[in-house]
């Protein structure tokens, strides 16, 4: 029964992803006065789903390699290491969040 539940969750997640990708594509096609087929949206959704699965597996592997059962921002930064711009954006965001959290603690 748990397997069915996992499959149901996966299907609901895929449906939500399809909806989100479709919405973004619709907004962009309207902005650019273009058209796309439902097959394009389906293929793009499958590609994004596969990328998400790969990222999740990599993050789990990094965390496990570090002897942790929880994925941290360090794992995300390690994943982004080959894309300098993305790594910078994530690093800046993490640093800002840490600074805001430290500032919040110092006010108490």
Which percent range fits the helix content?
Answer: over 70%
Structural class: mainly alpha
| Average pLDDT rating | 94
CATH fold name of the largest domain:
Histone, subunit A
**Multimerization state:** single chain
H-E order:
HHHH
Number of domains: 2
Structure description:
This protein has 108 residues and is mainly α. The protein has two domains: 1-70, Orthogonal Bundle (Histone, subunit A), CATH 1.10.20.10; 72-107. 82% of the residues lie in helices and 0% in strands. It is built from four helices and no strands. The chain has helices at 2-32, 38-65, 73-79, 84-106. Helix 2 packs across helix 3 (73-79). The longest helix has 31 residues, at 2-32. The radius of gyration is 19 Å and the shape is extended. The termini are far apart. The model has no long low-confidence stretch (mean pLDDT 94).
Offer a quick outline of the entry.
By secondary structure, this protein is mainly alpha-helical. The chain has helices at residues 2-32, 38-65, 73-79, 84-106. GO terms for molecular function: chromatin binding; DNA binding; protein heterodimerization activity.
């Amino acid at each position: 029964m748990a397997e069915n539940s996992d499959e149901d969750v996966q299907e609901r997640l895929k449906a939500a992803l399809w909806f989100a990708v479709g919405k973004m594509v619709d907004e962009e096609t309207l902005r650019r006065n273009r058209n796309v087929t439902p097959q394009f949206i389906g293929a793009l959704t499958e590609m994004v789903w596969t990328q998400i699965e790969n990222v999740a597996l990599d993050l789990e592997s990094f965390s496990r390699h570090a002897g942790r059962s929880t994925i941290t921002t360090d794992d995300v930064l390690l994943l982004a290491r080959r894309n300098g711009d993305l790594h910078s954006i994530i690093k800046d965001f993490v640093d800002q969040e840490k600074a805001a959290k430290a500032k919040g603690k110092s006010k108490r």
